[in-house]
Amino acid sequence: MDEKQFSYPLELGIAMFNEHGALKPSGYQELYMQGVEPHLKNIEMDEPRLIRDYGVAWVLIAMTVAPLRQIRPDDVLTMKTWNSTEKRRLLFRREFEILDETGARVLTGESFSTLLMLQTRSVCTDRELLAKFFLPAGERLLEASDRLRLKTPETEPVERLIARPSWTDGVGHVNNFRYGEMTYDALTDEQRGKMDQLSRLELYFNSETHAGDALALHRTEEENAVTVAISQEEAPRPAFAARLYFGEIEA
Q1: Cα–Cα distance, 213 to 190 (Å, whole number)
Q2: Residue 72 sits in a domain of what CATH number?
Q3: Between the chain's N and C termini, which has fewer beta carbons within 10 Å?
Q4: Which tens digits make up the pLDDT trace of 192-229?
Q5: Does 251 reside within a domain?
Q6: CA distances, 32 to each of 9, 85, 217, 219 (Å)
Q7: How far apart are CA 39 and CA 83, in angstroms?
């Protein structure tokens, strides 16, 4: 199957942008889902089908996006996506590119996902079942990892939260969009004002959180990067981490 035969129009809404006209982290997540969800349906690997037929669901493990220029609210965008997993393993790697109306790339990205067995809440290791979802491996667009080795910082959190019931999705855990929103909230005003200079965004989903969990948000700053870690109270490692890199990109 040539997955690149499919192309998906993307919709940009005002809620995806901040007051400076720059996409927020959750905006990038939304664009990804707008392309991937209909694509999985086209190739008969969509989540409702998997839940109904096999009792498993896709779980996002990591995602990286690399904007080539600033995405503007009036852009006309489309997305293509394809498998790039090179050998059979528990993780599936998927590339995606976002194109403007001229066909020029404005963003490249990749994601790592796995299949969760809903009855046991464990990663699916059934090789016969996993084999049903392997596709020919296409080109890779950027260097990226499926994990960020990070301990929960020992410093005082910038914020403490209780996970709300409304954050929970149909798989029964806090939805990945909520982590993008918490990441943005954990930034300083100055950092939120630099989102138009975001050159790379890495998101790592390490473990499930659920409604009622006490969460601690930590922010670690470097010269041109910020790391946000979201941990369950007193957990040694974050349930989620985001790394944002800032640099000069085309306006």
Answers
A1: 29
A2: 3.10.129.10
A3: C
A4: 999 999 999 999 999 999 999 999 999 999 989 999 99
A5: no
A6: 11, 18, 24, 25
A7: 11
**One-letter identity of residue 32:** Y
In a domain, 14, yes or no: yes
Domain assignment present for residue 41? The answer is: yes
Percent of the chain with pLDDT over 90: 88
12-55 per-position pLDDT tens digit:
999 999 999 999 999 999 999 999 999 999 999 999 999 999 99
Hey, how many other C-beta atoms are within 10 angstroms of the C-beta on 97? 18
Listed residue (78, 71, 131) closest to 103, CA to CA: 78
Structural domain boundaries, residue 90:
3-246
Number of separate domains in the chain: 1
Three-state DSSP class for 47? helix
Radius of gyration of the chain, Cα coordinates, nearest whole angstrom: 18
Q: At what angle do helices 176-186 and 25-42 cross, to 10 degrees?
A: 160
- Burial class from Cβ neighbours inside 10 Å (0-12, 13-18, 19+) for residue 165 reads exposed
Instruction: Let me know if residue 137 belongs to a domain.
Output: yes
At 107-154, the pLDDT tens digits run 999 999 999 999 999 999 998 999 888 888 999 999 999 999 999 999
Question: Model-level pTM?
Answer: 0.94
